[in-house]
Amino acid sequence: MPRNARVVELNLALAPAGGPLRHRLADALIEVLRTGQLGPGDALPATRALAAELGISRNAVLAAYDELAAAGFVHATGGSATVVADGADVAARAGVSSHIGAARPAVQSSLAPDAPPRWILLPGYPDTGLIAPGDWRAAWRAAAGEPVSNGLPSSQPHARLREALAIQLRRTRGVAADPAGIVPAPGVSAALRALATAAGLRGRTVAFEDPGYPEGRRALASAGAVIRPVRVDEDGLDPSALARGDAAVYTTPAHQYPLGARLSAARRAALIGWARRESALVIEDDYDGEFRYDVRGLPALHSMPGGPDVVAYVGTASKILSPGLRVAWIIPPAGLLAAVRAALDESDESIGTVTGDALARFIGAGYLTRHLARAARTYAARREALIAGLRTAAPGLRISGAAAGLHLVAALPAGTDEDALVARLAGCGLAVDGLGQSCLGQSCLGPPPGPALVCGYALLPESQAAAAAAVIADCSPG
Amino acid sequence: MPRNARVVELNLALAPAGGPLRHRLADALIEVLRTGQLGPGDALPATRALAAELGISRNAVLAAYDELAAAGFVHATGGSATVVADGADVAARAGVSSHIGAARPAVQSSLAPDAPPRWILLPGYPDTGLIAPGDWRAAWRAAAGEPVSNGLPSSQPHARLREALAIQLRRTRGVAADPAGIVPAPGVSAALRALATAAGLRGRTVAFEDPGYPEGRRALASAGAVIRPVRVDEDGLDPSALARGDAAVYTTPAHQYPLGARLSAARRAALIGWARRESALVIEDDYDGEFRYDVRGLPALHSMPGGPDVVAYVGTASKILSPGLRVAWIIPPAGLLAAVRAALDESDESIGTVTGDALARFIGAGYLTRHLARAARTYAARREALIAGLRTAAPGLRISGAAAGLHLVAALPAGTDEDALVARLAGCGLAVDGLGQSCLGQSCLGPPPGPALVCGYALLPESQAAAAAAVIADCSPG
After folding, report:
1. Could you tell me the sign of the dihedral formed by the alpha carbons of A334, A336, A338, A344, in that order?
2. B162 with B179: CB under 8 angstroms?
């Protein structure tokens, strides 16, 4: 067997308090190296599985892995599994740490709560319970009545879905695209890898929002892009921070992840102008552009004058319907269309045929429009309830980024140990993300964005908002 | 825009006769470079799309791309899109060829038939028309009635599918695996990439059957494995050709692709013994192990004594049901399990939740067993009919590799121009693969395996067998 066949299921435990969560997780993993449970060449556990096991967010695990990589304990192999580096065992035994001020952690009882959390405020998960069961079943029933794909190459793959998406995106996002210009992909990560490959971004610099979407950053990096963090503030990404050498920029203009800003109109125009001047590519991740509250809709970057020439628009069914569909879509600039298709083709990544057809019918029959209207009302009410709950229970927390999307940012008093708070909340049955987990490496650029909690409200019923806010208030200082 | 944004949809045309198909396609692509339709940094078209457009097999396109890469005209970027190399335009204008004896092709009228082929003998496509519509619909209906996934991490993802697969694989393939040891993946390519990453095969040598499965080779290479071709004969892969430095070996023991051999019992034991001695990994691609005719079943390598320690078993729903499901599965050695999960997790590759559930129900309700029995009878009859037709119409063709799977090999008289024949047959409305398209680069190792046709019979009704055989006979010499 290859050298790293020795990978084991770890019984990893975190010290229950003291220091940022990513430091503590990194320390616990170094302890695992020190004791020889994992050695050079072994793969670290899957981030999702470890997050689930420890009852923490996947972003926290990614941050810890990044920290270990920066300190040389581990390295990513081609952007996929993270593997223990040669000599990491020696370094661990010698007491080397991945961060300043580490205390050797005692391996103590796990933080993972015995029961699943009572309040899930993790951002990025839609309430799929809002989908009308009859509509959902009808769409799948129709799709299952179609002839079954035998895999023979087609010159018009997923035609029905591309047609439905063209109509939907034009109506809801102002994005004008021919069905032939839309490329389905099995997820945003696959879409971003294909775009990076198609646009020749390997070895070139991609400006990436910081703090920003960790999975997007990883997907682009795994395709060889060199990530350069750029500033984000209350108006979103700052175009003046873009540099001449940037071959592309990744942005979430509808609702910046994680700060929640909507990119201002002036900045939208500046961004398009910069991309046209510099012949750069704008990757617009419109991941939750469908939801906004009390504010005027801003057009997608792609829909602006000159946009289609420089903007690769990326959307997904994960937030508006279900991540289990594994369906995203790309509208690349016309010149990149063939190359994007080729990149997905070469890696043999495509969406399921029945799934694509079911989604097409869900859209075509008007079910998605109905669902989005109902979901927007529900999310608006849950957002109101959480904001009201926090204002009452924890008036010291400043709330921002709540104009759109499915999460808000609750700023904590300066000096709060954000990760310790997240851990305490987990112990109280409340799952939430800290803002620091979305920063690149150990620090964000620009105005310090934290400490803060990133609170998703999509899964929090109004009736639970006051209780959740009270738990947050009880655990928070000030 | 990045430099290769200039990619265009090509109107590529092949010279209608003369020389192997891959040479002619390579020549046509060089002509495209010469005329400046594509330049350095541009991506070549998607292989599937080009194959569909030209009415040839994807393997032929892959072979032509390999040839251009070997000659330095193009290079693969990170294993995905194939991109024109710097200086390729200059070389093309200077008359450099990718192979010996090339004549400058005139860009002539396309070979692509106006109508779809009347007889599809392309290997690797199942007849999805054999699926009982009621069973199919019932499985999807049941799956669509389940709660919709919201994407929250689960410690038991796809539990129902893994349980169904464990039972099915034990019964039909003798593979003993705990449901917890089965990892679903969205396709065999994704499965092979995850295995290569998990087993640390980047930069290491993987022995690969030659001739062999082109997509499998590409998937492993894209994950960084160094492919070393090994001999294949009528008994399958020759274990004596394995070398000390091989970290892994890829094999299709149930029905070697493309030669159709079943790996002999002696060789199976030798292969397991070698892997145990050398601490190497055996990647068993059981892609059509469910179908066999007039012969005793041979156990999967994974089911042999010592097998589970060294064999990573890979299966797929693509051949037994539909490639549109995008569902494959991996049973890695226990020591690689966590790393395989981690690799898929990091690249965010997972199967659709409704699809996984529908497949689980299709298996669990007994529909798959019923379908496989019916399909095996139909395929057996189609195989008989095609063999009888070929024996009558073209007695000079030697038939082999027909004991299992969904294709056979019809050896052509020595000296036959295999690719020219494939092109002539395409012109007559018959789509089939040449054996040479599965060879690594421009030549296969071991006993020369060609010229020959690789004839899939899954899509050829018995009533059409005689007519198809007559077309082959009319076009074939001798």
Report:
1. negative
2. yes
Question: For residue range B186-220, what is the model confidence (pLDDT) as tens digits?
Answer: 999 999 999 999 999 999 999 999 889 989 999 99
pLDDT bucket at A41, cuts 50 / 70 / 90: confident
Of A329-343, A362-376, A405-419, B23-37, least confident by mean pLDDT is: B23-37
CB pairs under 8 A between A and B: 351
Least Cα distance to B330 among B397, B284, B266, B281 occurs for: B284
Does B443 contact chain A (CB < 8 Å)? Answer: no
Given a cut of 50, is residue A216 above it in pLDDT? yes
Domains of chain A: 3-93 (1.10.10.10), 119-131+369-475 (3.90.1150.10), 157-366 (3.40.640.10)
**pLDDT band of B352, cuts 50, 70, 90:** very high
Q: Return the percentage of chain A with pLDDT > 90, whole number.
A: 60
Residue A75 contacts B, CB cutoff 8 Å = no
pLDDT value for B454: 94
The answer to whether the Cβ–Cβ distance between A322 and B150 falls below 8 Å is yes
The minimum CA-CA distance between A65 and chain B, rounded to whole Å, is 12
State the Cα angle at A429 between A427 and A433, rounded to 5°: 85
- Cβ-in-10-Å burial (0-12, 13-18, 19+) of B295 comes to exposed
Looking at this predicted complex, what is its ipTM? 0.80
Which residues of chain B have a CB within 8 Å of the CB of A431? none
H/E segment holding residue B141: helix B133-144
Q: Which of A26, A317, A51 is nearest to A188 (CA)?
A: A317
Q: Coil, strand or helix: which one is A121?
A: coil
Type of residue found at B294: D
Cβ contact B49–A323 (<8 Å): no
Terminal-residue alpha carbon distance, chain A: 55
What are the chain A neighbours of B350 within 8 Å (beta carbons)?
326
Burial of B44-62, coded b for 16+ CB within 10 Å and e otherwise, reads: bbbbbbbbbbbbbbbbbbb
Q: Measure the CA–CA gap between B124 and B138, rounded to whole angstroms.
A: 26
Q: Determine the Cα–Cα distance for residues B412 and B414; give it in Å rounded to an integer.
A: 6
Show the tokens assigned to A147.
Answer: 């002839």
Contact between chains at B80 and A199 (C-beta distance less than 8 A): no
CB contact under 8 A, A335 and B459: no
Q: Are strands A311-316 and A430-431 parallel, antiparallel or unpaired?
A: unpaired
Under the banding of pLDDT at 50, 70 and 90, the label for residue A105 is very low
pLDDT at B66: 80
The pLDDT of residue B79 is above 90:
no
Give the residue from A291, A56, A318, A311 showing the smallest Cα distance to A185.
Answer: A318
Asked whether the bond before A186 is cis by omega within 30 degrees of 0, the reply is no
Q: What CA–CA distance (Å, rounded) separates A136 from A328?
A: 18
Partners of residue A228 on adjacent β-strands = A207
Asked if B428 is an interface residue toward chain A (Cβ–Cβ < 8 A), one would say no
What is the β-pairing status of strands A328-331 and A183-185?
antiparallel
CB A251 within 8 A of CB A237: yes
In the β-sheet with A281-285, what is the strand arrangement from edge to edge? A183-185, A328-331, A311-316, A281-285, A246-251, A205-210, A226-233, A236-237
C-alpha–C-alpha distance, residues B433 and B60, integer Å:
8
Look at residue B10 and give its three-state secondary structure.
Answer: coil
Position B27 scores a pLDDT of: 81
| Residues from chain B contacting residue A324 (CB–CB below 8 Å) | 148-149, 151, 352-354
What chain B residue is nearest to A336 in terms of C-alpha separation? B5
Least CB-CB distance to B346: which of A81, A279, A347? A81
Cβ proximity of B232 and B262 under 8 Å: no
